[in-house]
Amino acid sequence: MRDLAVNWRVGTLFRRRLKRFWAEQWRAWRTALDWTVWVYFILPLLWIGGGTYLDIWHHPPDWLRQLPMWTGERLPLVVVFVGRLRTFAEEADVLFLLQRRTWGRGMMLRGAAYTAAVLLFLTALVYAVLLPFFVAVHHFSAATLVTMIVYTWAWACIGAVWRNLLEARFSGFRKWLVKTAVLLLLAITYLIPMIYWGSSPARLLPPILIGAAAFALLLRVKLRARDAFESDTQQEQLARLASTQFLLRNVMERKPRIRLRRPLLLRNSKRIFKRFDGETLLGEMIIKAYVRRFPLVRTWLAFNLLSAVGLILTPAVIQPYVAIALMLLFSTWITSHWRGMMAEPYFAQFRWPDAVKRKSAGRVRFWLVVPSAGLFGMICGLKAYGAWGLLAIVPGVLIWIVINSIVTSTMLLSDRKAEEA
């Protein structure tokens, strides 16, 4: 009887929190979905969309017939990527819920069941949209579609629990790296069986059983986790505020989040350059501020990667000109970053002379772009001269030195003209 009472209490608590969550979401959306929105936007959209869907079902257009099979097999992957485990944890649970392991397990299992139900609904919705492609064009049977839905649902549940575990155990760059690796692993393990055995329900059953076993194993790991309460409360708070943030995204001004985490690079306040003149000190501070911000470093890496791929695909005749254009483009972004840093209150409180500012901009621009210049020179040399082309890193850096001095001179001339005016 005691266990029944505990289960009843846990179930009542879960139902109350679930009811309160949907009441909050409805109140948020009710402020935006008044009768004018329903009459002039939503109902006409549903009418037109429903008519278009029925027309595609009865008369599939040519573009739908020409789509390859892998298009319909890969689109449901979005459900695998968006799933999030709901635990309905609150900060006040630390007072009593964590002291009763049966209560915590009961809430977690009910949250997992709710997450699975929501993901099943989303999976069925995606396949309902794709029904004209699978049934009207490729004539899939009902058993095949049900098997594909169950398979996608299993992998979506795996992704939801797995991402929840990663949120609690990693932070910073490691969390971004591990989550990216997990997304790639989920995509590979989902797509390979779907592409090869998606049209055969019998062959897709073993991957479904493997997925169900993996989901049960991850859920068991989640139930035994002892250091995930703070992460669960943060994720639940974001889930409750998701609708409000979406509706007010263009109304409320976002305040920057203050993170007291050690940077990945240059963690200690040591000098980079030996000189103590003004332009060296100012340039060093801005370079440190740049390198210590992971979003900027990630953008820097992405630009170099995309530029390198584009340069490799460029004909050898125009490669040097494309490399110079990429250097100029990159230097423009670095200059805008320098101007933004100079406008911050910390740097603005110092009265730097104009000459010091210009030379510091050239120093920042040089050191942040010189690795790209060397990479671009090496790519151009390899394509033109083979292995000996690796030595082209030297002329690439020399060309960048000349470009950087010209850009600095141009800034100096433009500033003089502004002062004279």
From the N-terminal CA to the C-terminal CA, the straight-line distance is: 89 Å
Number of domains: 2
Number of helical segments with 4 or more residues: 18
Series of secondary-structure elements, N-terminal to C-terminal = HHHHHHHHHHHHHHHHHH
Rg from Cα: 29 Å
Low-confidence stretches: 1-7, 413-421
What helical percentage do the residues reach? over 70%
Write down how many β-strands occur, each being a DSSP E stretch of 2 or more residues.
0
**Overall mean pLDDT:** 80
Structural class: mainly alpha
What share of the residues does DSSP label as strand, in percent? Answer: under 5%
The gross shape turns out to be: globular
Let me know the largest β-sheet: none
Short descriptors:
about 425 residues, mainly alpha, 2 domains, about 0% strand, globular, disordered C terminus
Notes on the structure:
It comes from Paenibacillus glycinis. The chain crosses the membrane at residues 37-56, 111-134, 140-164, 176-198, 204-221, 295-312, 318-336, 366-385, 391-413. InterPro entries: EcsB_ABC. It holds the Pfam family EcsB. Helices cover 78% and strands 0% of the residues. It contains 18 helices and no strands. The N and C termini lie far apart (89 Å). Mean pLDDT is 80; it is low at 1-7 and 413-421.
